[in-house]
Amino acid sequence: MALLEVNHLDVRFALRGGDIQALRDVSFSLDRGERLGIVGESGAGKSVAAFSILNLIAQPGYIAGGDIHFDGQTLSAMSEHQLRQIRGHRISMIFQDPMMTLNPVLSIGEQMVECLRAHRRISHREAREIALDRLKQVQIPSPQKRLDQYPHELSGGMRQRIIIAIALLLDPDIIIADEPTTALDVTIQAEIMALLLELCEQHNVALMLITHDLGVVSQVTQRTLVMYAGRIIEQGPTKEIINDAQHPYTQGLINALPQMADPGQRLNQIRGAMPSLNAIPSGCAFNPRCDFATEHCRHVMPEFVTSGGCQVACHMVREMIEEAQHHA
């Protein structure tokens, strides 16, 4: 049994003009110690999927259907009090912007001690020792000094290391990292991702990495979900998706990587833009941007079909598989 199972998740936002659907029929699982990537453009539904797991969706958003199971418990049926025992303790989250996560008026040490003592019955001194140990693990220089500093006194890279240290404080089973390196420069990004990967392997922590960067996904994750307009459209082993993407959208994301263009030439891009949630096209949501779209694609939503080790929601892929089977 998987550590985390998300089944047919449906998330909506209640607006004056009627509900709009942010996630539709999203299902995936995560095993203990596994590293899962969730990729897609802005607005694909990646963060909504992650926030739904811990019921952190702000009003007017709500979970309209489906269920979420964690280690034999049904998270989607838990009360707010029960969820507090899970959040930060067994499932930790690393957000995009460390300055939005850290409290500017409390020292780093105070924030780490407060987090520990909220979940464990330990003394202030014991909590501070654990906090110091975690800062050493994330390779912060002069960790003793950093405990008494405030967030504004630290660089962006250091703040992100502290966020990782806080995420590891209570030995979680899962870390959900939502674009953890967006605000950092490229060299620091690589350091932070390497550190996160190393710590997850050391502690056998499952990692759910949300990003739009397929380069990072290819280096860090074992399995990948590709999302578009609130739906998973392709999922499977990361190597297989990177080396032989099946869905035209996934192919477009890979072709848009800078290294895929010839030197001096314009970068490749997917034409058009992600549809807004209140104007998702009928049939396959990607059809207005797809070079292979047919009338069938414009009217009928594709079901998943197995291609190699991947699951792909695409009519064209289904037709290619059926044709190959017919000629076999």
TrEMBL record:
- Supply the Pfam families for this chain: ABC_tran, oligo_HPY
Please write the reaction equations for the catalytic activity of this protein.
a dipeptide(out) + ATP + H2O = a dipeptide(in) + ADP + phosphate + H(+)
Instruction: Tell me the first and last residues of the signal peptide.
Output: none
Q: Provide the protein's localization.
A: Cell inner membrane
Q: Which InterPro entries match?
A: AAA+_ATPase (IPR003593), ABC_Ni/Peptide_Import (IPR050388), ABC_transporter-like_ATP-bd (IPR003439), ABC_transporter-like_CS (IPR017871), Oligopep_ABC_C (IPR013563), P-loop_NTPase (IPR027417)
* NCBIfam families registered for this protein in UniProt: oligo_HPY
The name this protein carries in UniProt is ABC-type dipeptide transporter
Q: Which organism is it from?
A: Terasakiispira papahanaumokuakeensis
